[in-house]
Structures are given as structure tokens and as C-alpha cells.
Amino acid sequence: MINFRMLKLSDLLIWGAVAFLIAVGLLAIFSATYRLQIKVDGDPFIFVKRQFFSVLIGVVLMWLFAYVDYERLKKWSPLIYLGSLGLLFMILFTGSSAMGAQRWLQIGFFSFQPSEFSKLAIILILAYYLSANRDLNTWQGLTSVGLIVLAPIILIFKQPDLGTAIVFFAILLGMLVEGEVSPWTLAFLLTPLLSLLLRPIFPLWVVYLGLVYLGLFLSRANFWQWLIIFGSNLMIGLAMPMMWGALKPYQQMRIISFLNPAADPLGAGYHTLQSCIAVGGGGFLGKGFLHGSQTQLQFIPEQHSDFIFSSIGEEFGFIGSFFVLIAYALLVWRAVSIALEARDLFGRMIAMGIAIMFAFHFFANIGMVIGILPVVGIPLPFVSFGGSSLIVNLICVGILQSIAMRRQKLIF
To answer: Who's near 335: CB < 8 A, 6+ residues apart?
Structure first.
């Protein structure tokens, strides 16, 4: 039985934004696949049917999680986390492969990606831990949080799935900020990442090390802060050649092609070049539904998944893309608002983790499509083809609404 008193307390903007994004996704998936499927098996709706089936499953689970009090997830969070680790471990031995990656588990006729479910698991376990342990600035607290996140990252990196591993780091960083960690802890986490990004340009990296040194000097850091922060930056730079060698050849080429897409225009740089042509060719109003040349002539392989935004940009133009961006902005804004208004710290941490995950997916995917970020295989939430990602995202929406509907006591 639907409790309409509670439904009135839900966030209507989130319902509207998600429904709009799912509808746009179904249209874009149909446009990107229907000509190819007519040639293959004569059914132009095969991908749309599969996505719509995932929508139905996701909507049922979304409503279930919306009406179940989110506080019940607190005691289940450790078990959900351990279960996600078990599924990721199973991938190494029984997972099915596609396009050079072993990321799927097959159960009968149903296959799914455990790495997608592990994103929700890591949000729940971090919310559980951070809401119970407020002293995050000790070595014990920071090490515990690091180990929680490092375990699934290692298993996911073995698949390999670099994109999801990066999402985990973004979730961790955002939730630590929400957990009010010290500036020194954030510096320890962020500065080595910047050192890693700048190390390929050696003179720039040396200048960056000088700025880190100057910052520590001006802030009057003690010996251990000097040793940890400056030492970690130095060690990251020196270990860069070994880390580069640990990447798969196609991952190396993605980074090289990001810096210079023309270096391999028919290989690793092909997706980026063609997607930029598609988005740029859409102009202000777009070429019209089912009339995009790059989309309809299949210039972008697997366009219905990670590069679905290129189809939207080509066929619906700047106007269509703008409304998609507005929908994502509304979704993230309302998720952050729910986090700030949550009745307890556990709910606030969950809502903030979900907001960070949505925002990072949106930024990384669109950045990848328009060529300002490297190709890392991150789907566009609610729009890209993929049942596992869609179902998990809808569950997250349900949890957000559960937190929203319990921001104040109901009066009967």
C-alpha cells in the first residue's frame, strides 16, 4: 500500500530529472542501434527492449528502497560490502569477458557487473564507518578508511576496469571532505595525485614539487607532515615509470591519445575524434532524431554505451544537450540538499556519497566524449545502455528519496 503522506515529502525534482534522463536514454539508444540491429537480426528494438526491462526492475527496487527506512541499511552495510567483495573475487575465476575485459558474472540468462553494485556498497560502508568514527585525522582512522576502499579497487583494477577504480577514489575524497577531515589529510590525498598527473612533463613536475615545498614551509609543517606529504609526492614521481608499465597497452594508448588524438586516429584516438565530430556537427538545434550522420552510419563503435552523449549532441544539438545538463545539475543539487537536510549523519553521508558519484560520472563521461578527459569507460547515468548501471542508479535514487521522506517526523 502506498503511503501518500510520505510520497508528498519526496523530492519531485529528482523524480522528474530521472524520468527525463531515462526517456532521453531510450531515444538515444534506439537511434544509435536500430540500423545495425535491422541488418543483424531484423529487430530494431532489441537494445531498447533490454534497457526497458532493466528500467522495470530498477523502478521496482527504487520504490522498495524509497519506502524502507534507510537506517535499516546501517546494520546491513558491512554484509553488503563483504558480499560485493565476494562477487568481485568471483569475477577473477568465473567472470565472462567482453572487449578484453572480464567484468561480468553470468547467472542463467542474466548477466551483471558486480563493479557497478560495488559503488553503492562502498558508499554504504563509508557512511557506516564515517558516521561511527569521527576521528579521521589519526593514522588508525585514515588507514582503516584506506583499506576499506583499497580492497575493491585492487579487485576491480584486475578486471581491468580503471574507470570504476577512479570513481571509488572520487567517492572516498568527497565523503572525507563531508566528514570534515583536516587540510593535512586532504593534502596527503590530493597532492600525490597532482604529482602523478604532472610527472610526464618533467620540468612542470619539478616546479610543482617546488610549490609543494614552499607551501609546507609557509604553513610551518612539522617533521612528519614534511616527510609524508613531500615524500609521497617525490616517491610517486620516481615510481611513475613502473606504474606506467603496470597499465595494459590499450590503457597506455588511451592516455597517449588523450594528449594527442591524432597520434592514433584509427586506433585509440578514433572514438574521441569521431565523438567530437558528432557533437560539433550537431550545431545549435541538431540534425534531428535518426538523422545524425556519425550516429546512423555507425562511425562510433558501441555508441549506445559510454559514448551515448555523442548521439544526443549530434541529433538534438546544443539545445538537447543543454536540457540533459540541466537535468543532471538538478539531480546533483537536490541530492546535496537532501544530504544537508538529513536527520542524522549516516543519512547525510549516504546522500553526499550518491551525489558525488552522480556528479563524477556525469563530468567524466561528458568530458571523455568531448575530448577534455581520457577515455576510461564510465557510463552516463540513466542514459547509457547497461542494466547493472541503470538498476544501481535507480536504487540510489530510492535511497535518496528514503532520506528525503524522513527529514521530518510524519504526523498522523
So the answer is: 14, 351, 352, 354, 355, 358, 400
Neighbours of 10 (CB within 10 A): 16
Backbone phi, then psi, for 110, in 5-degree steps?
Answer: -105, 130
| Residue 258: band (very low, low, confident or very high) from pLDDT cuts 50, 70, 90 | low
- Taking the C-alpha atoms of residue 74 and residue 79, their distance in angstroms, rounded to an integer, is 10
In the block, cell 610527472 appears at 199
SS3 111: strand
Q: Is the pLDDT of residue 212 over 70?
A: yes
Q: How far is CA 11 from CA 56, 350, 403, in A?
A: 21, 16, 10
Q: How many residues does the chain have?
A: 412
Q: Where are the domains of the chain?
A: 4-405
In 32-69, which positions are buried (b, 16+ CB within 10 angstroms) versus exposed (e)? bbbebbeeeeeebebbbeebeebbeebbebbeebbbee
Residues 162-184, mean pLDDT to the nearest whole number = 82
Question: What is the model's pLDDT at position 127?
Answer: 92
Q: Would you say the C-alpha torsion 375, 166, 190, 225 has a positive or negative sign?
A: negative
